[in-house]
Structure formats: C-alpha cells, structure tokens
Design a protein that fits this description.
Bound molecules: citrulline
Radius of gyration: 17 Å
Helix content: 10-25%
Number of strands: 15
Structural class: alpha/beta
Strand content: 15-25%
Number of helices: 5
Length: about 250
Amino acid sequence: MFKNAIVRRPGHSLVNGITSTPELGKPDYGLTIKQHDAYIGALRFCGVEVTVLQADERFPDSCFVEDVAVCTKKFAVITNPGASSRKGEEKVIIEVIKKFYNNLEYIKEPGTLEGGDVMMVGEHFYIGLSKRTNREGAHQLIEVLKKYGMSGSIVETSEMLHLKSGLAYLEDNILLVTGEFINNLEFKKFNKIMIEEEEIYSANCIRVNDYVLVPAGSPETKEKIKAAGFKVIVVDTSEYRKVNGGLSCLSLRF
Ligand code: CIR
C-alpha cells in the first residue's frame, strides 16, 4: 500500500525539457497544469496523501520527481541524475524526503542513477543500465539495498530512455512489458501483459493501491489490464509525453 506521494508542479520552463520526440511539439502550459491537477486527483482518489511541491523554473524537468529519489519501505536514496541539465534537481528534493525518512542514502559520482531506471518488486529492485544510469550507480544502489536486507539486479537496456519506459510491475506477479524486454530472461517468472508497439507509451502505467493508472490513448492496454482483474483510471499525460515524461515519473510513491 502507498500512503504518500510527492509531486512537483511543472514550470513554464518545461517547454525546455529534454525530449527525444521534438516532432510532437512543445507542451502547452495551461494543459500541462490541468493534466497535473487531474494526476494529483487520481492519486488522491487512490487513497494517497499527496505533497505538492512548488515549480522550480531553474530545472525544466523537475516535475519528473521520480528520477531524483528512490523511496523504499526502509530508506530513501537521493540519486545522481545522468542528464547534465538535471544535475542539481536531486538537491532540491532532499528537504521534503527528510520529512518522511530518517534513513537517507546517496548515489555519488562517478555513479549516476535515475529513479526511472529502478523497478521495485517487493524487496528486490531491478536496475536498468541506460544513458542515465551507469554501472557504478547501479552497484552503489545494490550495496545500499544489501545493507537494509534487500537486493538488486542489473538489467541491460538498449532502446528505452529508462527501464520503466518499457516495464511496469502491477504487483501480484503481473508485469506490463514491451519492446526489448519481452524476451528478457530476467523477467521469465512473471505473468506478462504484452504491450504492442502502437501503444508502447502505455507500458509506463502505475499501480496505486486498488487501481492502475493508465495513460489516455491506449485502449488496448486499458482492456488488457482490466481483463487481468484490475480497476483502471485513465489519466491524460499528452503534454508530458512531449518531453519524454509518463505516469510514473510524475510522482514518488511510498
Ligand atoms: C528527461 O528526459 O529526463 C525528462 N524530459 C523526462 C523524464 C521522464 N522520467 C521517467 O520516465 N522516469
């Protein structure tokens, strides 16, 4: 069960966020805010207490709070983002994380790690190696996990921005999976829900207590998740998609 979530309001500078799909255009500020309101509303509907941080215009991507911390049951890790324009975002999240956690750990140079590359499955954490998360960062996280009696393992990635761009753990041994991860033996033990190429963006869903949040515009994914027995809430994240963002990266949940 998640009791808490932290989100950060998007700033006007989100238009300068990192994107790999410039052809989608720039986020519309008004719509970005509306969608953020709806996202917060969905989290609250799922029974989560949401802490809303003010926008920080200095960091265009700072509404994607998932990347700057990893929040577990026992401790939180402040990460070290691999994207140069995102370095420093981790410092501005520390204060609020301290309100919730006594045990804080840090990923340190030369290690880099972004939370989008970390998927929690009970007490085990899958850590994707990506352009943002390097082997040193992954090893540092594994050492921290061991210290608290948990474990981590490394997953090589090649096409996705982050590990969770192509995977979402819905609990109950059910894994949403797409693209390069479909045949990855690391995930053999899971009951898989396959996401087709046309709806690849919807592999980034989030299970929040009794519901699964699914991005708008992915009817097949929605039906598959419903067929697996979940209650679904559709949330539109079209403006965040324009800057590589999805449902998971907009919050820290713990
Ligand atoms: C970035 O490229 O870093 C941001 N524009 C989007 C981050 C998305 N984060 C995530 O999927 N965990």
